[in-house]
Amino acid sequence: MSEPQSPHPDVVRALQALDGRDTEHVFFVACGGSLSIMYPAKFMLDQVSAKLPSDLYNAAEFTHRAPRRLTAQSLVILCSMTGTTRETVAAAKFAREAGAMTISLTVDPESPLAKASDHVVAFEAPYTTGIPIDAKNSNYARIYQIVQGLAARYDGGGNMVALMDSLDALQSVIDRAQGVFTPRFDQYAPHFAKQDVIYTTASGASYGAAYSYAICVLMEMQWINSHPIHANEFFHGAFEVLDENRCYILMKGLDDTRPLEERTENFLLRFGRPENILVVDAAELDFTGVVPEFRGALAPLVFFDTLWAFAYRLADLRQHEMMSARRYMKKLDDY
């Protein structure tokens, strides 16, 4: 029998720093793709902790709104992949000036964000190096460890052992999912590559993946107009643009909000055309090794990783360079 896996040492150190600290509120703060991981993190904290209310903010709005609940009894969790996102660095400084404790996730422990924060939790990302990683070392994995640690510390709950076992099995789940979804991606890519507009939709823990895929992949890297639509908000205005020509990517997860996504799927297929509705459904996948309790939380990471393959397939068909073709991102520093 294998030894139980421990949380990452950076997570352990950050959680230990909470000893003797009266934490009354948690803030999840970031921008763009880093903000997307905050949605499932808050979703998890909402479900496992009765004692830690939380809010989620875009970093610049956080500093400008200046919530009155931000005090010395607050914990602010931030993320920036490179650690150079100026708004997030400013948010870390703002939080510390209020006396709050800050934990920042970044791939670079010497980055401006790391230096502006009380504690740094490192993670790996293939988008900076091009080298594939094990999903258990991703930003999702690290922030979930923080959340489970908070639940254990303040509620006497959480299930860190089961989470670590599940994270250890996650990469195999993703690898198997690629085999399930690749034929579907090959089928849909030629049609979707011709589109000027593609919407994404999901709910619950998966909403962050839909958000990131819309603004960071389709819009930023493909120049395809998009918008992430919450699966229930879809019925409060957004469904009026649905017709037989509009394209959607629907992510059906495994958390408690799955009925919202199923309702959206039924409506999309009722008034749209199946060839325009790309559905990625976690229920089709083999989650062997992942404890059922965490399948809903880890499904969005499976979606995110597998849909990158679809993005590159679109880019090839569009003869578009995903990273280098960006006009503004990483090209300008005066905005």
Describe what this molecule looks like in 3D.
- This protein folds into two domains: 150 residues, 3-Layer(aba) Sandwich (Rossmann fold), CATH 3.40.50; 149 residues, Glucose-6-phosphate isomerase like protein, domain 1 (Rossmann fold, 3-Layer(aba) Sandwich), CATH 3.40.50.10490.
- With 335 residues, it is of the alpha/beta class.
- The strands form two sheets. It has a five-stranded parallel β-sheet with strand order 2-1-3-4-5, sandwiched between helices. A four-stranded parallel β-sheet has the order 7-6-8-9, sandwiched between helices.
- Helix 10 links the parallel strand 6 and strand 7.
- The radius of gyration is 20 Å and the shape is globular.
- The model has no long low-confidence stretch (mean pLDDT 95).
- The termini are far apart.
- Helices cover 47% and strands 14% of the residues.
Quick synopsis:
The chain is an alpha/beta fold. Helices cover 47% and strands 14% of the residues.
Rg, please? 20 Å
Give me the strand/helix succession: HEHHEHEHEHEHHHEHEEHEH
Counted by DSSP, the helix tally is: 12
Report the span from N to C terminus: 54 Å
Strand order of the largest sheet: 2-1-3-4-5
> Structural class, from secondary structure content?
alpha/beta
CATH hierarchy: architecture of the largest domain: 3-Layer(aba) Sandwich
Q: How would you sum up the major sheet?
A: 5 strands, parallel
Q: Low-confidence spans: pLDDT under 50, at least 5 residues?
A: none
CATH superfamily of the largest domain: Glucose-6-phosphate isomerase like protein, domain 1
Number of separate domains: 2
What is the CATH domain class of the largest domain?
Alpha Beta
For this structure, the CATH topology of the largest domain is Rossmann fold
Mean pLDDT: 95
Number of strands: 9
Portion of residues within helices: 40-55%
